[in-house]
């Protein structure tokens, strides 16, 4: 049989709660939904394989936002995240996360995932943020996925691997009715009717092109092509603050975390080519990223993570975490370049752009119950709008989503959808397989992402954005009329390109809408260089209305935790002052 | 428009002598997040069919016989 041969087929199944995406938030959402009502059917749909999918494929080196009694309070954390996001935060969801995350840590601990403890048996939390102490190392963080998978099997969650969801189904009154998916190895269509759907599909991490030119050498797991953002958009859900891009500091070329959160608490720091510190704090914020960007472009770049001044034993300890967990090929990469942390600093750079609430704030709009603006549709993890989520946020908000979605499913029957929606989507999905001749997905993807780099990367210039919009529209036409997929695997890539293109369009639209600069490098508009609180102290919500991309303002909810005037700009003062 | 294929050195290498895919093992193919590994119809062994690698390591870490090696893709090495 030819490689990944296309098979004609369509089947339909139904379940109470459908969770799409089996990375971090998804497994927790599925587990909590099932535990809430053990008699209900919960399906976990995954484009790859739940065993090793998502951002934590090889585990995680630590919790970046653990609110642990005795070290930090929910009030303090909520304040810190609000300030780090220039105030544009609905605090209720952040506060709820901060209150619940400790319970989730204990639960993860009971699953067999271990966290660093001190000699008294207390969690050994480290300080990385500007104000509070929230970083908890995970010395055996490589076990996370295995531990989760065990729980899923025990709870009898129905797992469907290698199905890529492409569109959501809705009833005529706007309620969620299920999803359409396609098998990534056979191109067979699977329709899943569901009373509630939870999207946990990760970041839009394949938006910009890495400077290495290797398309899959992205910061985020390259499987995270923004499918969730695109699906939510086409279902009419609102997406929040997409102009607040994700840009990360990283190991140059390798494109993975360096990782200051791991090494910082041991005494490592970010330095310029003179070996001097230039930022006050390594916690990622837009302002910190702007200082990083400025330093790279000044005569004082490159930027390094410096740890050669530390004791060899300390370096070994850092090394054993960096080279074992999260991105274990970091060791291989450094070895290949002959870099030994004992005598050489790690050359850093900043990443391509993406959407990811896990590190910034761009995501499908959700309230404190993980509900989107579409009834019965939920979102959690890197693709939902709760800012600075990281892994623990994905677990905690995934848990919230799972419980609330099952309550929704218990009180609603299946919504009816129009059979024509399935037929139309099937035609759309399979269109690239019906053409004899055309452009392969890898070329459409390269061009789209190259345009993203050329025109969309901050600093954002209106004239560049307008040109970018035109070039992207031309490429979209090629994609829709001429893209070919000769087998099921190419079809998977062809569908991902369409998500990437949708995300690029949303990035342009959202960025042009907010006529001010905010979040440091993330939304630095040269035509509107100042922060404008009078007109833009608000969220922006992007959605599809009458088939058209539309943006509107949404007021920031009144704060639960008040921020004093002299605290508001704590994250603005990132640059180390010359006269200390 | 005619298509051409171009050469690329792939980062994931499988030691055929150690690989037991011909005995029915599919672990590396199953766990890959990017779904780029396949079993060869000719040799019965696993190989990298698509150069779309995140150099993430599950294939190497989960292989029961230690047959799989992940290298850093050449462009970013």
UniProtKB/TrEMBL annotation, chain B:
Task: Name the keywords, alphabetized.
Answer: Iron, Iron-sulfur, Metal-binding
Q: Which residues form the 4Fe-4S ferredoxin-type domain?
A: 10-42, 44-73
The UniProt entry, under Pfam families, shows: Fer4_7
Which residues, if any, are the signal sequence? Answer: none
Is tRNA-binding a UniProt keyword of this protein?
no
Q: Name one GO molecular function term.
A: metal ion binding
For this entry, the protein name equals Ferredoxin
In its UniProt entry, the species of origin is given as Bradyrhizobium guangdongense
